[in-house]
Design goal:
The chain is an alpha+beta fold. The protein has 4 domains: 135 residues, 2-Layer Sandwich (Beta Polymerase, domain 2), CATH 3.30.460.10; 84 residues, Hydrophobic Seed Protein (Orthogonal Bundle), CATH 1.10.110; 191 residues, no CATH class; 53 residues, no CATH class. The protein is 52% helix and 11% strand. It has 26 helices and 14 strands. Strand 5 and strand 6 form a beta hairpin. The relative contact order is 0.06.
Amino acid sequence: MEKRVHKLTFYHPKLERISGCLEEGYVVGGFVRDRLLGIRRESVDIDLAVPKPEYVAECVERELSLKPFTFERVKTVYSFMGKGFRIDISGILGNSIEEDLKKRDFTVNAIAVDVRELFLPFNDDALLIDPTGGFEDLQRGIIRPVYREALSDDPVRILRGVRLKLELDFDYHDSFVSQAVESSRLLEGAPPERIRDELVKVLKREDFHTFLREIDTLGAFYPVFKELKGIERIPPSGLHQFNLKEHTLRCVELIETYALPRKSEILEEYGERVGVEEFFPGFTDGECLKLAALYHDVGKPGTVEEKNGRLTFYGHDSLGAEIVKGALLRLSFGKRASKLAYTCVRYHLRPFFLYELFKKGELSDRAVYRFFRDAGKYVFHVLLLSVADFGATSERCYGELPAYISFLKELISFYRERLENLKPLLTGSEIMEIKGMERPGRCVGIFKEKLLELQALGIVRTRDEAVKAVRGFSCEDTHKQ
C-alpha cells in the first residue's frame, strides 16, 4: 500500500540549506521516525543515505562551512555537528534504498523519504519508502527487528531497542525478545565506544534504573557491566532488607529520581556544583554519578566474610573504587569520569559513619574535616550518593531520609563556615624556612595539610600561632595522624 505524508512533516532548514548537494539521496532513520510520531527534539539527528557520500560531504562542508568527522560502522559515515543539529551522511548499502533499509536494525528506523520530493514545486506529499512495515509498527507501538539476525549481527542493537522502547513508550515484538535473549552474551565482545554511546543516551534521561532492569530480563546486564557479576549472590544482611543486586538497582533509582532532582534542597547552594562538569559532549558529572551508584557496592562480593553469623565487607569501599575506575575506563568514559566514580565509591560509607557518631553524640570536627578533605572536589557528589544508598537500604531507612538529610545539612554548614574560604596562613616556602629545609619534599605538603586542619578546627587562628605550630611538627609523627 502506498503511503504518502505531507512533505512539510520532514522540513528542516538545514535540509533545505544543503538540498543542492543532493542530486539523489534519502532521509532515513530516527529523524523520519520522530517526525511521523510528531516528536520534536531540541537537537535533531538527520541521517542521509546517498549514492556518492564523499561528493555530498564535500558539498555540505562548503554549504555549512563545517568540517566533518568520519567514523566507521558498516560503512564510512561523514558527520557534521552544529548548534541544535547533527547530519550524518553515508552510502547506500546494496543496489537500492530498499535493500539498504532491509539491512537496518528495527522496522521503525527503516523508513526513508526521497529528499528530492521535499523540495519539488507544486508537490505537497512525500512517499514513504517502507519495505519492512515500519509505518504500521509505529502505529502499533512495536519495536521489531528488521530481519532474523539483526541483533546477532550487531548486539549493541539490543541496548538501542530497549532505549527506544522506553523513549517511545512502545512494546517489544516477540522477535525482539527472543533475538535479544539469544544474542545478549555477544555484547561482551561489542566495541565499548558504541556501548558507551548507547548508555550516554539513556543516562541523560530519568529512567536509567528501568533500562537496567529491562536489560537484566534480556540477559544483557552482566555482559555490559561484567564487573558486577556476583552481586546477586549477596543476601540481605544487617540493616539491608534486600539482596545486593536489588539494593544496587534501588540505589540507582533513588539517585536518579530522588537525590539528583532534590540536589538544591539537599545540598543547598552547593547543589549547583553537581551536573555542570562536562566530561565529553553529552555526558556530565550528573550522568556519571548514576554509574557510580550502579557500582558503589561492587567490592562486596570480593570482601564478604561471615563472622558470628553476620556478613562483613571490610574494605569493600577501597576495592570497589579500584574496580569502578577500571570499569569506566573499559567502557571508554575516560579518566575524569573514572576519577569521579572512584572518589564516590571510595568514600560512600563515610557519611554513614559520621551519622552514627552524630546520633551517639560522638561526632568530632576533626572527623568532619577529614571527610571533606579526603573526598575533595567531588564531596557533594558523595553526599548525594549517600542519600540514595541510605534510602535503598531498607524501607525503614527510606522513612528516615528526612532526618539523614537534616544531618547532611549540618555537614554542609561546617563546610560553609569553616572550609569554603579557608586559606593557608603560611606558604610552602615559609614552612621550609621555618623548618630549615633546603628543598621541597613530601614533608612540606604534610605540614601544609596539618596546618590547614588546625586552622579549620579553630586551634590555629593567626600567623604567629601557625609559625609556632609548624615548629612543633614532625614529619613522621604528623604523617601517622
